[in-house]
Structure formats: C-alpha cells, structure tokens
Amino acid sequence: MTDEAMVRSLAFTRLDPEQMMDLASQFLEVMGRRRSVREFAPDPVPQALVEMAIRTASTAPSGANRQPWTFVAVSDPDLKRRIRVAAEEEERQNYEGGRLPSAWRKALEPLGTSWEKPYLEIAPWIVVVFEQRYLVRSADVIEKNYYVKESVGIACGLFIAAIHNMGLATLPHTPSPMVFLTRVLDRPENERPFAVFPVGYPAAGCVVPDLVRKPLDDVMVLAADGGANRS
Q: Residue 183, exposed/middle/buried by CB under 10 A (0-12, 13-18, 19+)?
C-alpha cells in the first residue's frame, strides 16, 4: 500500500505482559460464563443495544475487506411468528421426518433440543445473518466476494461475544434448510441465510445443559520441530 490516501497510522498501545495477562484473564472470565440460551424473557431490549452488537460484529476482518454480511434485526411480532412457523416446519422434518441421521439425533440428546422453537417468538429480537455471495454494483456489474463463509463466521463470533458482554443472551440457530428466511425477509438474490440469533434476557429460572468445555490440552497443540527433517 503505497498510496498515502489508503493508509493511516495504526492506533496501538503496547502493554506490558502483566497488563495483557490481566486483560486476557478478565475477558476469559466473562466469556467463560457464556452459554447458549433457549429460554428467553419477553422483556423488551433497546434497539440501540442490538445496533451496538451489530456494529461490533462489523469490525470483523473479511476477505478483501468486502464485509460480506447483512444483519437483519426483527422485532415485529407478526414477522417473528412467520419465522417461527417456517423454522419449526423445517425442524419437524429433521427431527420426525427422518432428515437427521440417527447419530446426529443421538448427539443432540444431551442438549434436550426438539423441533419446537418457541424462543423465536418469545425473544424480543431475532437477528438473521445473511452472507453476501457477491456484490451487485449495478444491473450490469457483479463482483465476487472472497472467503465469504469464513468472514461471516468471524463476524457472528464477535456478535455473540458482544451480546454476552453487554449482559444479554443469544443462541446460534441454524434451521436446515434456511431458504425460507430469504423469502420471509425479502432479501435479494445475492444473499444467503447463514444463522439466526434470538436476542434477549434469559427467562427467570432458565436452565442450560451441564456441559464442560474441553481443557486447553485438548484444543491446543504447541507445534515444534522434532528434527524429522534434519540430516
């Protein structure tokens, strides 16, 4: 990048390792309490909070900085009802119509999930994320986006973190197939549904599965040159 109009100084402050460890520990403690919630209170959530979470999500890195995502925020009760009805019809086919393999259903048993998704109506907000497969500059100009799923996945991760950090709860929900969301939300041809996030406060007495996250040794490998390529 040699064009001065395209660069600026990075706003970065180097901290000492002790400060960094303190910040890292605090963030780990906050995120360590995060859980996916399927029982929501109907209490209203200010739109400004949802907007802040989406703004945070949009700081995610993306292929060629195309930012290939659209976050559709839904609070209208009738629209939420239509989404629930359509999602439950697809999920009923998955759980009771044989579309889910038996191994998959068995893996879901500890979570206590079913085709019924009442939280899609109860939560005050549903945020539906769409991936933009390509850009439409004009009727005659279409440009490919790059690393779309990777970029949108990172943005969704930041969205989840932002929601939890502000004291709200969410659940990544991916009914399959999801094409009905394009129709219900009247999205353009270049967009494809990626995930659904109900957003709100956990219901009073909300319970979650008693799950344990894998220890560090199970998810991290410290690579080292073992000398295999040495003469």
A: exposed
Strands 134-136 and 142-144: antiparallel
Q: How far is CA 131 from the centre of its chain?
A: 12
Cα distances (angstroms) measured from residue 133 to each of 67, 74, 178, 194: 11, 22, 15, 11
What are residue 98's phi and psi, to 5 degrees? 90, 5
pLDDT tens track for 70-125: 999 999 999 999 999 999 998 888 777 777 778 877 888 777 788 889 999 999 99
Answer yes or no: is pLDDT of 51 > 70. yes
Q: Under a CB-based contact definition with an 8 Å cutoff, are residues 70 and 129 in contact?
A: yes
H or E element at residue 124: none
180-229 per-position pLDDT tens digit: 999 999 999 999 999 999 999 999 999 998 888 999 999 999 998 765 55
Tell whether domain 43-203 is in CATH 3.40.109.10: yes
Cα 91 from Cα 100, distance rounded (Å) = 9
